[in-house]
Amino acid sequence: MADMLELMKSDSKLKVVLKEFPVLGPGSVEAAQVAVAVRMQDPTGKKYLDFHQKLLNGRGQADKARALAASEGSRPRHGEAGQRPCQPEVRATLEENFKLAEDMA
Hints:
Helix content is 56%, strand content 0%. It is built from 5 helices and no strands.
């Protein structure tokens, strides 16, 4: 994360696109669901980037609890972050990301 942020600061023409790709188990999937919900409610992308900085600068594996804590200030509305079954839009976004990764392989 720190390297990516440094690159972004050093090159204003650089465009970085974050894609949720949860491959580290159930906690990773839950954290990705929260991340997608945060992004869906953030048209500017600033809160989404702030969320990732908080989540990825911590120690240990990302999971639902850490993701919800990182989403403070941009907390997704009830149900959009895994508090109840995953919303169709969140699930569809994650499926699209896996399809993109598969197509790139």
